[in-house]
Design goal:
By secondary structure, the chain is α/β, with parallel strands linked by helices. The protein contains nine helices and six strands. The termini are far apart. About 35% of the residues are buried. Bound molecules: 3-methylbut-3-enyl trihydrogen diphosphate (2 copies) and magnesium ion.
């Protein structure tokens, strides 16, 4: 097997059709730790290296956007100690990485219900978004305290409030206006969805945006995910035929014979 690091990934994928936007469910940290006889939080900590390598590789490929599912609306139900470790890890990683991300021209966005975070974390998120707001490289979206259903409900409420204020005629509400009220309205929909950890489900990630996304599942547990696995996912993507409900134009002969 060819082994690709972030440095070689652009060369390996040269000539292939690349996704503009990749969305990743980073799953399998707990099982990774368990398989080594370590507590779950060891898996979460080890997963930070995978995030760093993926962001580096995405930057080298000049992808437009990368969305990472870090913590779901439902993950709040986990034991308090695990939630605290995750919040602490989120805070320290952000503090450690912000400067380097900024130097690499990465623009950060956070999507999800941030009112559930403590004040100091909320301030850090706003600060990171403001510092990187003029950057023109990779748009890095971190979905945290995020659920696809939550996001659609928020968007629907916003439109309803506008209608109630008399600013919007309900008859004009269409896909474009709902899309405009989502937190990802500034991004193209994901072309490629990757889920690590072997489960084959969406788990309330980007429900609206994934309508025509190509899905790639891998058994690799998140802490083991490297640029090599991104390369494999993109090679899989490049071989897909996207039809969006239409048909591929047929070759001339078969049309004439019909
Ligand atoms: C993903 O790994 C990280 C988060 C959901 C925060 P898990 O913690 O879900 O790991 P598994 O699925 O239990 O192995
Ligand atoms: C999805 O993983 C959420 C994140 C990776 C942040 P989960 O581990 O929470 O999903 P389920 O419970 O297996 O569906
Ligand atoms: Mg999981």
């Amino acid at each position: 097997m060819e082994i690709t690091g972030p440095e070689q990934i652009a060369e390996r994928l040269q000539g292939l059709r690349l996704p503009r936007h990749v969305a990743v469910v980073m799953d399998g940290n707990g099982r990774w730790a368990k398989s080594r006889g370590e507590p779950r939080h060891a898996g979460h900590r080890a997963g930070v290296r995978s995030v760093r390598e993926l962001v580096d590789a995405a930057g080298r490929l000049e992808l437009e956007a990368l969305t990472l599912f870090a913590f779901s609306s439902e993950n709040w139900r986990r034991p308090g100690a695990e939630v605290r470790v995750l919040m602490e890890l989120f805070r320290t990683t952000l503090d450690q990485e912000l400067q380097r991300l900024h130097e690499n021209d990465v623009r950060l966005h956070f999507i999800g219900d941030r009112r559930r975070f403590d004040r100091s974390l909320q301030r850090r998120l706003t600060h990171a978004e403001e510092v990187t707001s003029a950057n023109r490289g990779l748009q890095l979206v971190i979905a945290t305290s995020y659920g696809g259903r939550w996001e659609i409900v928020e968007a629907a409420r916003r439109l309803a409030e506008e209608a109630a204020r008399g600013e919007r005629d309900p008859a004009t509400i269409d896909e474009a206006s709902l899309h405009g009220a989502l937190s990802t309205t500034h991004l193209p929909d994901p072309d490629l969805f990757i889920r690590t950890g072997g489960e084959r489900r969406v788990s309330n990630f980007l429900l609206w945006q994934l309508a025509y996304t190509e899905l790639h599942f891998t058994e690799t547990l998140w802490p083991d995910f490297r640029a090599e696995h991104l390369a494999q996912a993109i090679e899989d993507f490049a071989g897909r035929e996207r039809r969006y409900g239409g048909v591929q134009p047929e070759p001339l002969e078969s049309v004439r014979d019909a």
